[in-house]
Amino acid sequence: MLRSPSRFVRSWVTAALAGSLLVGCGSSTEPADGKAAAAGPKTDVTVEPIKATRALTDAGGVKVSLDREPERIVCLFALCDDILTELGIVPAATNSALLAHPDFLGEERAKKVDVIPGGFIAPEVEAILSHKPDLVIGLGDTHGKLAPALKDATTFWPMQPETWQDSVGYLRDVAALTGRTAEGEKAEKTFRTKLAEAERTRSDKTALVIYGSDENFGVATPETDVGASLFPKLADYPWKSRGVEGSYSLEEILAADVDVLFVETLSFGEADGRLSEKLAKNPLWGKIPAVRTGDVHEVNSEVWAKGRGTRSLGLVLDEATAALR
Questions:
Q1: Bigger pLDDT: 19 or 112?
Q2: Which residues cross the membrane (predicted)?
């Protein structure tokens, strides 16, 4: 079996297959003895006012300070693109394909946004700085290494979201720094309201979200995956993280009687087929209840796996609740 740091795998763009290796035959999770993970407290739809500021400390303890409202923001991962879209801001440059989605800028408008060369793992510093950014937002455990090279030229903000609450917090922080407080409050309210409604109609079906590029797949878990952190509120989601050394097999998934299965195909370069089609070569795949009943849903990985902001998560809620009825 191949082993992989599941967190980094989905730390975007699930690092190249040759380097980051998805967990063979599974991921870093284990079932919670057949019982649904706790849904947690009911979602509060109250939105506290956002106050504009030039300096703040985010939930991860990162201090961000700007001389003025940032006008040119470079996004090195998709949460940044999601947040800026919610706030009505177009990034100066990006490192993801999320903006081309029709619920974001759409293909034509997205083509006008420059793409930083070098790929997700190693975006080129010179290309980033060529856009004269006031602010560069990246994923901490992937882009933190760029901080020294960016230090004297711009402000670098490493984010590290793991739950939907983290994503809401980052939305609020960016809204405060950009002065888009009303837009931030509206986006948060829309998301919280949608999540609360989905929670009221919670399904008793067992759900599972898997991701990967081939037979070596991973399982998205609520503790370490933003999208998966929604699922205990939507359905029975009995999967827990076991850290980077864990693995999860089709035999164990079969034993859990999964009713609805969501599949994120992550490609590295040219797409070469869906993950569900590759897994179908395993005779155990066809025995999973969701497969037998045709309740396997290939989803858009740009939104489900990489977006992680309130707009992307709203789309995840829409699609997940429809499938779980």
A1: 112
A2: none
**Is the pLDDT score of 26 beyond 70?**
no
Domains annotated for the chain, with CATH where assigned, are 6-38+203-324 (3.40.50.1980), 68-197 (3.40.50.1980)
Contact 231, 238 (CB under 8 A): no
> pLDDT tens across 60-103, in order?
899 999 999 999 999 999 999 999 999 999 999 999 999 999 99
Report the pLDDT value the prediction gives residue 143, as an integer from 0 to 100.
Answer: 97
Residue 189 pLDDT:
98
Three-class secondary structure assignment of the chain: CCCCCHHHHCCCCCCCHHHHCCCCCCCCEEECCCCCCCCCCCCCCCCCCCCCCCEEECCCCCEEECCCCCCCEEECCHHHHHHHHHCCCCCCEECCCHHHCCCCCCHHHHCCCEECCCCCCCCCHHHHHCCCCCEEEEEHHHHHHHHHHHCCCCEEEEECCCCHHHHHHHHHHHHHHHCCHHHHHHHHHHHHHHHHHHHHCCCCCEEEEEEECCCCEEECCCCCCCCHHHHHHCCECCEEECCCCCCCCHHHHHHCCCCEEEEEECCCCCCCCCHHHHHCCCCCHHHCHHHHCCCEEEECHHHHHHHCCHHHHHHHHHHHHHHHC
- Rounded Cα–Cα distance for residues 33 and 130 (Å): 53
Q: What is the structure's pLDDT at 3?
A: 31
Across the range 231-248, mean pLDDT stands at: 86
Q: If you search the block for the tokens 């984010």, which residue do you land on?
A: 159
Give Cβ neighbours of residue 200 (< 8 Å, ≥ 6 apart).
none
Question: How far apart, in whole angstroms, are the C-alpha atoms of residue 129 and residue 150?
Answer: 8
Q: What is the pLDDT of residue 273?
A: 86
Output the pLDDT for position 316. Answer: 98
